[in-house]
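Why run this: before we spend reagent on co-expression, it is cheaper to look at a predicted model of the complex and decide which construct boundaries make sense. The entries below are exactly what would go into the expression plan.
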Amino acid sequence: MAGPMALELHPDRLFPAEPSVRAIARELHGHVAELPIVSPHGHTDPAWFALDEPFSDPTRLLVTPDHYLTRMLHSQGVALEDLGVQPLDGSPVADPRSAWRTFASHVHLFRGTPSGLWLDQTFATVFGLEQRLGPATADLYYDRIAEALATDAFRPRALLDRFGIEVLATTESPLDDLAHHDRLIAEGWGGRVITTFRPDPVVDPDFEDYGANVARLGELTGCDVTRWDGYLEALRVRRADFRARGATATDHGHPSAVTADHDRATCQRLLDAALAGTLDPGGAEQLRGQVLVEMAAMSLEDGMVLQLHPGSRRNHSPRVLERFGRDKGADIPGRTDYVDALRPLLDRFGLERDLRIILFTLDESTYARELAPLAGFYPCLTLGPPWWFFDSVEGMWRHRRAVTETAGFANTAGFNDDTRALLSIPARHDVARRVDCAHLATLVAEHRLSLDDAADLAEDCAVRLARRAYRL
Amino acid sequence: MAGPMALELHPDRLFPAEPSVRAIARELHGHVAELPIVSPHGHTDPAWFALDEPFSDPTRLLVTPDHYLTRMLHSQGVALEDLGVQPLDGSPVADPRSAWRTFASHVHLFRGTPSGLWLDQTFATVFGLEQRLGPATADLYYDRIAEALATDAFRPRALLDRFGIEVLATTESPLDDLAHHDRLIAEGWGGRVITTFRPDPVVDPDFEDYGANVARLGELTGCDVTRWDGYLEALRVRRADFRARGATATDHGHPSAVTADHDRATCQRLLDAALAGTLDPGGAEQLRGQVLVEMAAMSLEDGMVLQLHPGSRRNHSPRVLERFGRDKGADIPGRTDYVDALRPLLDRFGLERDLRIILFTLDESTYARELAPLAGFYPCLTLGPPWWFFDSVEGMWRHRRAVTETAGFANTAGFNDDTRALLSIPARHDVARRVDCAHLATLVAEHRLSLDDAADLAEDCAVRLARRAYRL
Amino acid sequence: MAGPMALELHPDRLFPAEPSVRAIARELHGHVAELPIVSPHGHTDPAWFALDEPFSDPTRLLVTPDHYLTRMLHSQGVALEDLGVQPLDGSPVADPRSAWRTFASHVHLFRGTPSGLWLDQTFATVFGLEQRLGPATADLYYDRIAEALATDAFRPRALLDRFGIEVLATTESPLDDLAHHDRLIAEGWGGRVITTFRPDPVVDPDFEDYGANVARLGELTGCDVTRWDGYLEALRVRRADFRARGATATDHGHPSAVTADHDRATCQRLLDAALAGTLDPGGAEQLRGQVLVEMAAMSLEDGMVLQLHPGSRRNHSPRVLERFGRDKGADIPGRTDYVDALRPLLDRFGLERDLRIILFTLDESTYARELAPLAGFYPCLTLGPPWWFFDSVEGMWRHRRAVTETAGFANTAGFNDDTRALLSIPARHDVARRVDCAHLATLVAEHRLSLDDAADLAEDCAVRLARRAYRL
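The model came back. Tokens follow.
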């Protein structure tokens, strides 16, 4: 809490303290530290890379859009407006420098958190800062970062090169015109920055403006989206459009993992009710679950990997939703079932070897109880990395320990950074690689794994499993 | 199992074995070992401190009332009567010395348990015993402890001084006359031994004698407790009485975390049915949940901190309840939901910065999935320490590891001993401080936290967070 | 992935890396490494020991029947037929050597898994193999193992001697004629290979051919199994038959832990509906739960230990069930409740000191929340070891850490290998003993337990607790 202290990244950070284990972890990390970054799932803005313009200012790049950061300050009584988060009604917010100072004076809240690790590593390695952020260094940081952002070396495409990013997937709605991705392809960046098909706005009857969204889908595709077959055809058309922009995967952010496999008449009735706005919650669950099974069927046709991200209770605070909109840190995980919920999907496609479904969870109690046993049996299932709140040092340890003994490594999908915070991507992958090496080193030290196997698996976890899982 | 062995407390107990981590833990513990004890939540008897009389005998002080101990022996076939637990029908029980011998001959059951740690530390540091308890030392222990208890140095107030207890909160019913606390204030102990407002007997329709309790509440306050407004006013009056005796907090032991926010007419109907004894289980849940929201509203007025302790299935064994009454070790934790259950409360008050709600749980699966994400967003929420069965070495490690990465340290409330076992209080705080230092030392050794920050956080965890959370 | 590497079992495997902890673990393990094997729960074939014929070939002994192995290869796209798993329709399968080669070329999937540990230890210690299994060594392995199996030293009874197996329990249906166990008794192996009473086929209305099974039970016993009393009497008769063949325990594989305690008329109605095939799922649950309580009543009469193994969603894949039958790796754990589900049983028998019920779980979230608190109070309850997917290094650590602080060691039942893989039994017990010693060593190193107590507990965990729990 005193004056500024040195910002130093210890080369052995996140490795176990016991010297023999640490030495093994260090050796394993040496094999993977410089490998390229494979980022098959994330939420950066494709406009950044298409337009390649300089970022505006430190606050709007690093703080305001990062709900990992703003939620922590909010929990301690800081108003979101004071961090630059814009209310929907246009009320004034703090200017970028003031917001940065507010952030800097609360950065001690991140001690012991992954955000703290990511921030320090970003400040040190991307901006070369040598003192820790705090009230006394707030302006120094702001000026140094602002200055850097104005240079060509910090334009988005330059950062992709500098970070060694082999491939980066963004996420778009089926209503997106994909113009940014078209430009990327035209300018030689196709295959490096790719899109992902995320149909929630036209699939989830509870999504804002669902009816209008579906209507717009119809216009875009020329399909009769009021008929079940036409609606599916419209989705199929858009999937092809996304495939053409490099997409290898779809993504589905459902509140639960419920799947369904109804006859066509029932599907039509569910769609009718959804479009009429008369579908009850149980019906909405069935409709989402039905579309998920249809997506799996289409994946068997077109080869796209299906990602299921269930279990977030989105917009838990109605007042925050009303004032600021979505994605402001008010999404809370909840208990999630898989074993029964996935039955309709698995009964139909579970044994397909050419289908790949990547399962994520926000309910860690399912790792060992449900997900690892499922993925350790069904050929179509692969487990995604620890997600969101669990994309952290302890979270990754819990994941590996709970999953590995039943599912092995081969049924996992490597690491996702899943972030909209572009500058934190190298730090996030570094943390993941360090934890994986620490885990593997522990197995080696306890004679549960040979050193050769550990080196092989470290590379699997760093890049190969992700490339394979996402068919990159 | 052989003869008596030396009872020795190793100065490095509970610290990780790896020498570099242990050295850091030892250093951190050096900063906090001698800090005063802040005990904002517990169940000691205020009569002890008001009357300041000697304790009767070792068994009735240390064994009979401690259901952590009696339940373990009971699980291995020892009758509760043989430990001095009095049946309600007045059946005879073992005399104190016999009960002590029975206890001593089973103390090996506590190997590897927190009770074992607390007992050994209490015996060694409070009574200066130098051999371990066992059949061979049962009488030696009994005599030494009995002798000590007869001295002035072991009177309750002297123990508060000796233990360095800065503040100790007891817990009383709204029907309590608070005479002991009045006497404490009159004799200069106000603010040191304080009360806590625990309204379960007049709030929970399933509580024994609920109707009579509510009627008595009406008599005490002169309010018409058959009317919803009068009932609330009666609670408000008693809260003020408790505030006047130093209370800074209320406490609520609900079976679930359900909250409710009904209109006044519905509230009146729920109350009517509860008083008529016709409320069904769902209605009882709603009534308890409604009162909780009313308590939050009153907390905003009077500043009292609201503690919610949900999830215990009390009196799981009807036979034990019938024969011995409540709190005899037959309370079993159960699965507990927070994310949906707290919505009515959080919709109304979640964004209030001047409200403090401290959440506890007996369902550890909620730490990372629900509680840390909630407390890491809502300004009013703070997480209590690991509770009851989880107030243990492994329990505290699990809690810190599951909570810290999402909620940080600032959204936690420090340590509670939550005990009726006065003599164990120093040992319980020492165990907590040691585990916190061990956890922090691990973060330092893995370069996830600086040593300076760790020292600061160790003091936070030992005393500052508790003072702040409870507004002491 | 390169050529064959040396297969070496490190003497310190599974011990923590920190040298002082490792030294303690090694010392503790020295006390228990050579103790006999007590195997009170498993699924080996009694015909092996009764007939004592040589095993046929490596694949059919080690791979095909072991669904831990086949499911992992299946999850990566290998057809079960290619591992020799026989479809019910008689379709051809790979010959043993081909299947072995397929297995060998996928053995890298088991890196970091308990199956990997068990396999390596079995290959090294039972067959003296010195290179690791892989594509290059597949034939070497096959030939060496086949050659060994043809010798007298590898006949089933010789293996029991060689493995130091003091007692081995198999599991039979009430419809079994127990002829193998009769022969074992006649040939002097009684008490060494014993049976276990597993009545699922005549208790679970959802079991294949339930009605015919119950009818057969009536024929075997001469009881009128269409009447509730006659049905119970038939079970009682068969329990006595099993007791006469050495059985000390019953075993119950219910989908949930639900118990029930209905009046006789209700029981008759449930049985009638079950036999008529008209029982709905809720009724089936009640009938199973009722029989469980009846089994507890009979256990009080005849002294047999009641084992409850709930929570597996059996035959999750209907296609695999249809093609291959039961026990092919498609059983998936699910969330399981105990606190409310066991009430009817515990209300009636919970306080009985002469009843022993051993509880297992596939839902680790219940260890600390429900099972340890229940077993730490009710005299009749004992906790089984980590089961099935959790019978692993990390699984055992989680179990000890979650259970010990509330239930101690005395309320646990030691280790079960629970396997049909005879040759892996020594490896499984060795892994369990090593993990227990590692856990105890950690407690000693952190000064939470004395070394003497740890040595005593290590022997408890290795053999004494199992003997006591199963009344051997």
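DSSP finds 20 helices and nine strands in chain C. Chain C touches chain B through 48 residues (CB under 8 Å). Bring this page to Monday's planning discussion.
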